[in-house]
Structure formats: structure tokens, C-alpha cells
Amino acid sequence: MTIPDRRARRVVFFVFLTVFLDLVGFGIIIPLLPFYVQTMGGSAETVGFILASFSLTQLVATPFLGRLSDRFGRRPVILLSLAGNALAMVLFALATKTSLLWLLFVSRILAGATAGNLSACQAAIADVTTAENRAAGMGRLGAGIGLGMVLGPVLGSSVSHIGAWAPPLAAAALACADLIGAFFFMPETHVGSALAGSPKADQNDTTLAQVLTERRIVTVLGLYFLTFLYMSNMQVALALLTRSRLAWTPMEIGRTFGLFGLIMLVVQGGLIGRMTRAWGSMALVIGGSLVSMTGLTIIAVSHHAPPLVGGLALLGLGLGVVNPSLSSIAADAAGSARQGTILGFAQSSGGLARTVGPLLGGLLFARVAVGAPFVAGAVAALLAAVLGVTLAKRQ
User: Fold this and answer.
1) What is the pLDDT of residue 337?
2) CA-based torsion, 380, 386, 389, 394: positive or negative
């Protein structure tokens, strides 16, 4: 499905560019993070705590940043987030250079506190698209994420031979480039109002307590939580599983993450609009969750490369249709005046899952079995499908 409005296409393009550069940096460091932690004396559980520290601060900060984007516009929030990410990557590089584990924690906490750009970018797309083409717009954003996840791990693994500090420093440089590009080219899409007593200001004061009284939005938040729960399980445990069972090197793991991102890129960049038009966003959430469940189950029991890669491909396909569909459903449920706020709460629900997921994944990997995090992820994906059926019946 194409986006007919010229201004909307321009906004979607620059949002695509912003999240692409942002996720290249993310993709550079995430596959290598377990190795950094282990060289500093940490364990699989330590990896979980580091990822959880990022997600916990993101959980707290994202609704606040979403509300700010409704009041003052999307652009200032995006610029603030990108500046924080650039500084966090510099601290990450310094931590790997000096082998200071506590500084690694500080860098991820700072990154989480300013990681509000995704919800602001989603809100910017929701500002300039209609209900009919919103999923296609969200798919373009997802394509930027997918392409970044393709190139990030490849770039990170290709420069890792220079030194442990090289991948995060490359990520810092890309974050700076992202900040400069957004400053000069990212247009404002939403003129908020901070005037007391204005209708828009009143709606922007939406609280979590008020959100929790709206059954449809609560169900969407539950879907976000379950989806990000099984996705974060994969992020913390896949590198550890492939190293344990297949003795893969960081370069091989980086390429595997790149394949995962490539599949998401193809789905979200070229197929999601047609799929939404054919089946609707809700059906895609249900079907994508079931496909993800299948992929996670295959990964959990795989002891050879071909089935593991096949399971990862199914997971990429499932997440590729679920993520933009969920964003579209959340934006539709929010209404135009509070999209940033509701999408911020949605991202915080995902942030809560990204806090719990890495801790759970690291604990299951270290204390139960190598494949246990993926079994837990498969259960979460199944529950997401059930919740999606419940939401479809209510609609």
C-alpha cells in the first residue's frame, strides 16, 4: 500500500532514516554484548541485568517523553533522545576500553533514559497518515529498524578485530550522524499546546490510571508486553545458545542477527501494506504471534545450524508482521490528540517486558537449560495470540 500524500512520504522517509541509523548502532553492540560482559568477568545473568537496566529506565522515561512530544512536538524529543544515545555509546566504548563493568551499566542506563525516539517517530507517522495507510507507514519505520539490524551486526562483527572498543565507537559515530541528520532534515509533524485549559492540553494530561480504565488500550499494552518479552528473550540468549551448542564466533553470530533483520526488512518494507489490506492488522498480530511461537520452539530444540537458522527466519517473519500492526492498532486506539502519550505507554509496556525478559532469559539459561529462554518465549508468543483473539472479538 502506498502513502499518497507528499508531505507524509517526506516525513516517513526521514523517520525511516532516523530509526535506521539509530538501529545500526543498536545492532552493532547487542550481538556482541554477552562477549563484552564475559571478558569483564560477568555471567549470562549479568547480561540480563545490563539489558534490564536499559529497559527499566526506558520504562520510566518513555511515557514522559511521549507526553512531551504531544505538548511540544515530536522533533525536540527525537533530538534529545539521539543526543543521549550518542553519549551513551561513547561511554560504552570507554567501558570496553577500560574493562569497567559498572561503566557498561551506566551507558545502558543513560541510553534507556533517553530512548524515547521510537515512540516519537511512531507518533510522527501517525500524525501524517490515515487509518487506511497507517500500517504501511509503520511498516516503513519497521523497515528502517530491520535494515539497521541487518547492517549493524555485520558492521559490528567486521570491525571487532580492531578492538573491543571499535564496535561501540562506530555506533557512537553513527548516533552523531543520526543526530545531525535529524536536526537538519526531520520536520515537525505535531504542534502541541502547553496552554492551560486548552482541549489538547487536557487530553495530553492522560495518566496511566486513566489508561488502565480503557479495556481496549489495556489489551494492546498486554500485547506489547508479551511481544517484547519473547523478543528480548531472543536478544539475550541467542548469542549464548549458538556459542554453547555450535561454538559460533562473534562474526557468525553477527551474520545470524543480520539475517534476522533482513527478513524483518523485507516484510516491513515491502509486504506489510499488502498484507494489512488483505487480512487486517488484528489478524496479522494473531498469525504473526503463532509463527513466532513456532520459530522459538524450533530454536529451543535445535542442535544444528540449519534448523536453528530456519527457526530464526520464522521468528523474523512473525515479528515483522506483528510490530507494525501493533503500532497501527495502538495509534488508532489513542486518537489523534494523544498518540504520543499512548504510544509512549505502549513502548513502556514493551520496556517492562524488556526489563523482565533479559532477567528471565539469563536466569533460565544459567539455572535451567540452554534452550529454556526460547521455550518461555514460545509460551509468551502463544499467550499473545490468545490475547489478540480476545481483542478481535471485542472489536
Assistant:
1) 62
2) negative
pLDDT tens for each residue of 360-375: 887 888 889 999 999 9
Integer CA distances (angstroms), 192 to 71, 113, 124, 342, 344, in order: 4, 22, 12, 15, 16
Cβ pair 52, 359 in contact under 8 A: yes
Q: Where are the alpha helices (DSSP H) in the chain?
A: 6-29, 33-39, 44-72, 74-98, 101-113, 117-128, 134-159, 166-185, 199-204, 208-211, 215-246, 250-266, 272-279, 281-301, 305-334, 339-367, 372-394
Encode pLDDT of 150-183 as tens digits. 777 777 777 777 877 888 888 888 888 888 887 8
Judge whether residue 5 has pLDDT over 70. Answer: no
- Give me 300's grid cell: 529451543
> What letter would DSSP give residue 268?
I
Number of CB atoms found within 10 A of residue 53's CB: 20
* Nearest CA among 239, 236, 253, 256 for reference residue 364: 236
* Helices 166-185 and 74-98: angle between axes, nearest 10 degrees: 170
The number of CA neighbours under 13 Å toward the Cβ of 317 is 14
The CATH homologous superfamily for domain 6-183+205-394 is MFS general substrate transporter like domains (1.20.1250.20)
Are the C-beta atoms of 302 and 105 separated by less than 8 Å? no
d(CA 370, CA 84): 35
Mean pLDDT value across residues 319-333: 84
- Binned at pLDDT 50, 70 and 90, residue 208 comes out as low
Cβ–Cβ under 8 Å, residues 242 and 308: yes
Domain ranges of the chain: 6-183+205-394
CA 386 to chain centre: 22
177: number of Cβ within 10 Å: 15
Angle at CA 156, nearest 5°, toward 234 and 81?
75
Contact call for residues 73 and 190 (beta carbons, < 8 A): yes
Q: Cell 490528540 identifies what position? A: 337
Tell me the CA distances in angstroms from 148 to 78, 79, 193, 250, 355, one per residue in order: 17, 19, 34, 18, 22
Say what the pLDDT of residue 226 is. 94
Q: Of residues 167 and 309, which shows the higher confidence score?
A: 309
